[in-house]
Write a structure and sequence with these properties.
- This protein has helices at 3-38, 43-51, 116-119, 387-394; strands at 77-80, 86-88, 92-96, 101-106, 109-113, 126-130, 134-139, 148-155, 168-177, 190-196, 201-203, 213-218, 223-225, 232-235, 239-242, 251-259, 262-265, 268-274, 284-287, 291-293, 298-306, 313-317, 328-338, 341-352, 361-369, 372-383.
- The longest helix has 36 residues, at 3-38.
- It is built from 4 helices and 26 strands.
- The protein is mainly beta.
- The strands form 6 sheets. Strands 10, 12, 13, 16, 17 and 18 form a 6-stranded mixed sheet that branches. Strands 2-1-4-7-6 form a 5-stranded antiparallel sheet, with no helix packed on it. It has a 4-stranded mixed sheet with strand order 3-9-8-5, with no helix packed on it.
- The termini are far apart.
- A hairpin with a 5-residue loop joins strand 1 and strand 2.
């Protein structure tokens, strides 16, 4: 073999081998695409998959902390715990009798509201301190009687006027649990409650423990009154609310609370049913004559149309009162139909006998019921006597 010729051809052979290696992946890819086309796979979508970027990882969301659940995080009112930490308060808050209640309200100008019982506190248990950006309410040695709503309102002052911005408020209902007291204590043994037509009535047997089971009972005859949540409902913060008062509920009622081994009876409530009007009366007035000659008689009638069994009281104002003329009044009540509806007609009739010059003027009728009063007026003119009336009076 001619070694000189081999050395001359060797670089060319190496170059051809390198080109063949570079072309093989393309042929392999072409064969793969051809195979996929034969199987019915879209070559366009496959190409797209080959050029697709790697999948990007989505950032993980941080789960909510359990301590923030069920609390009013945005409220300006918070509780100061014994450890010195702060805890946003919710709709209700429970503390044990004897413990201190420490509340903090944000704002540079803060006002507090708390149970009326504490307004008469003469033991110095309630203290309120105002600081630069918040106010603090401290109630030491709490008792069952302190149960109730605590709230605050605060402004963020900027400059001289603290009331330029919107006032923010916060509130919570505090239950002060006592192993010996299931009801908020009261000095009243009997409380009179009016059951008014179409108006809710409240039996304020408030509990100190939200876990207590409360029932409504009648004294005579002894029975438990059903509570359906519609006609009668129980509110932990208020007591029993009677939404549909009825005469059958009148009498002596009381509440019974049970929790654990403790069972207690509340104050007794004497319920009195009153058929209450829906609105003040609307009287009308009518004179038998617009003008009358001296010596003649006339009458004025004041009428009220209203609901059945609603008592209406009438009063009169008339010119003759100036000379001490006594009123002669007759009243009557009857039933009448107006527009197919049965209504009560109440009337008051004022009699003026032998009119005098001083009877000339304005006559006013005022009708009043439990909802309020209304007045109507009319004028009667007294003319000089005629010859006939003059002769009759002289005879």
């Amino acid at each position: 073999m001619n070694y000189k010729l081999l050395l001359i051809l060797l670089p060319s052979l190496l170059l051809l081998a390198e080109c063949d290696v570079k072309q093989r992946p393309e042929k392999t890819a072409d064969k793969k695409l051809a195979k996929q086309a034969a199987l019915g796979v879209s070559t366009k979508s496959t190409t797209k998959k080959l050029k697709q970027d790697p999948i990007k990882r989505q950032p993980k969301t941080k789960p909510a902390t359990p301590s923030s659940q069920g609390q009013n995080v945005g409220s300006i009112l918070s509780q100061v715990l014994q450890t010195g930490r702060f805890q946003p308060v919710g709709d209700t808050l429970t503390v044990k009798a004897g413990q201190n209640l420490d509340l903090r309200c944000k704002g540079t100008s803060v006002r507090w509201n708390y149970p009326h019982y504490l307004h008469e506190d003469d033991e110095g248990r309630l203290k309120i301190k105002h600081f630069g950006r918040y106010s603090q309410l401290i109630l030491v040695n709490t008792s069952a009687a302190d149960t109730g709503e605590f709230s605050c309102g605060g402004y963020q002052c900027s400059g001289h006027d603290c009331h330029d911005g919107e006032e923010k408020t916060g509130k919570t209902y505090v239950f002060v649990t006592d192993p010996q007291e299931l009801f908020v204590p009261t000095e009243d043994y009997y409380v009179v409650v009016q059951l008014r037509t179409r108006q809710p009535a409240l039996l304020p047997c408030q509990v100190t423990n939200p876990l207590a089971k409360v029932t409504l009972n009648r004294e005579f005859p002894p029975e438990q009154i059903p509570v359906d949540g519609v006609k009668i409902a129980f509110d932990l913060k208020k007591g029993f609310v009677i939404y549909q008062p009825h005469p059958s509920l009148a009498g002596s009622l009381f509440c019974i609370a049970e929790h654990g081994n403790l069972r207690q009876m509340s104050t007794k409530y004497m319920l009195i049913y009153v058929h209450y009007p829906s609105a003040p009366p609307k009287p009308t007035i009518e004179a038998s004559v617009k003008s009358v000659h001296a010596g003649e008689n006339f009458v004025l009638t004041c009428t009220v149309l209203g609901e059945l069994e609603i008592s209406v009281e009438f009063t009169w104002e008339y010119p003759g009162q100036q000379i001490g003329r006594p009123p002669y009044v007759r009243e009557n009540v009857s039933q009448t139909r107006r527009g197919g509806q049965l209504m009560q007609q109440s009337q008051s009739i004022l009699y003026i006998d032998e009119a005098r010059a001083l009877d000339d003027g304005i006559y006013t009728c005022t009708a009043q019921n439990l909802q309020g009063s209304s007045s109507v007026t009319t004028r009667v003119t007294v003319l000089p006597p005629t010859s006939t009336t003059r002769v009759r009076n002289q005879g």
